[in-house]
């Protein structure tokens, strides 16, 4: 086993590495640093959490230690798919280049153009950027890429697979043909590898682990869950998530919870906070300042549960994450490897648990095929049932109340009409087998008297129609609201006392 001192790195870089507490390189570092120092293109494939970032930062700093930056013409370029990963790479450069006089600039969205322009104008040795913001600066005439000597594409498969291909091709066309190119990723599907061959020239392929393999220190499990009703799936699924968290007890010191959609990230984080869990969301639609604060709070231990989209699945290094919960089965099997790679890093033990609904079983099969092994199946936690019922009932009460209010408004006039009839002066008696009884002289008088009152009681016309249709001589109700004219057939149903 070799040490960093045997890799021909700059003595000042070695000193920074020793101060960071590292003595022995990881397999990917041992395999990638020597050819990178020789100026060769490198294609590095290794499990997430094995130190790929240092595999290109250390040789870059060593090679850039000689020379001087020029205004608006960076000497090296590192492309990252997400802002968080770009910021993490920048932190690595600060750590390992603190003894070397190198300047850097971080070009990501959500930050003022003016501050970034000022750094570029002074001249930078290392430019770390996301593709979109880099092209924005170029199109504004603030940046030239003709001086790039070393170009790195971190998480290469994601950069090429998630719609970045046109931007990547354009950026490569703006850099010199003589540049040195390094590609690093945890996964490299054959179709993606064919694309990288157009950007690399006789690369040194360094593959220290089977592609898309998860670390053996990560314990994996999956829960197959089916909702009682389709509209209850969200609330019951969140109850299962809470049950999984509770079942781990004190072993779950902190965790990242991955969702496929940004809306589910917000809903899940809000639900967890409602039930007393310390959770915060992070996804691409949030302001960069909020994303940075949330991520810093999680790293410092102020936030226990980070509910995230795949923006946090790539390259983020939080060494002490004890658990990863996949609230959704990822649509791409490779994303599963990246997600669970947030735990069990640097040889630590970790646990990854996933919730699978029936429609996601196809994606689950793809993941198991990629891993070449079955993920152990566990039972749904029993403690989730009560919470599920409680949340479901609270969700269902709202529409049922609104329907009841509408039905009350529809039936209110009939109720009032019935009360008005019950409150009238006693002029008849209702019996089981006899019609209403009243004296002949008083029937028209009472009817005329009641003509004026029911008009205030809202539905006289409706009562008239109903009684006209139903008055067939059998158990007739008391006649109300007929005006001065009373049909003769109604008078026949009255009997003298």
Question: What does the model show?
Answer:
This protein has 497 residues and is an alpha/beta fold. The chain has three domains: 204 residues, Rossmann fold (3-Layer(aba) Sandwich), CATH 3.40.50.300; 178 residues, Rossmann fold; 68 residues, no CATH class. 43% of the residues lie in helices and 13% in strands. The protein has 18 helices and 14 strands. The strands form two sheets. A seven-stranded parallel beta sheet has the order 3-4-2-5-6-1-7. A seven-stranded parallel beta sheet has the order 10-11-9-12-13-8-14, with helices on both faces. Helix 10 packs antiparallel against helix 15.
Task: State the main characteristics.
497 residues, alpha/beta, Rossmann fold, 18 helices, 43% helix, 13% strand, globular
Mean pLDDT: 79
How many structural domains are formed by the residues? 3
Derived from helix and strand composition plus strand pairing, the structural class reads: alpha/beta
CATH class of the largest domain: Alpha Beta
**Beta-strand percent range:** 5-15%
CATH fold name of the largest domain: Rossmann fold
Poorly predicted sequence stretches spanning 5 or more consecutive residues: 383-390, 392-457, 459-477
Shape descriptor: globular
Mind describing the biggest β-sheet? Answer: 7 strands, parallel
Q: Helicity range of the residues?
A: 40-55%
Q: CATH superfamily assignment of the largest domain?
A: P-loop containing nucleotide triphosphate hydrolases
- Spatial strand sequence of the major β-sheet: 3-4-2-5-6-1-7
Q: What is the total tally of β strands?
A: 14
| Rounded radius of gyration (Å) | 37 Å
Number of helices: 18
Q: What's the architecture of the largest domain in CATH terms?
A: 3-Layer(aba) Sandwich
- Gap from first CA to last CA: 118 Å
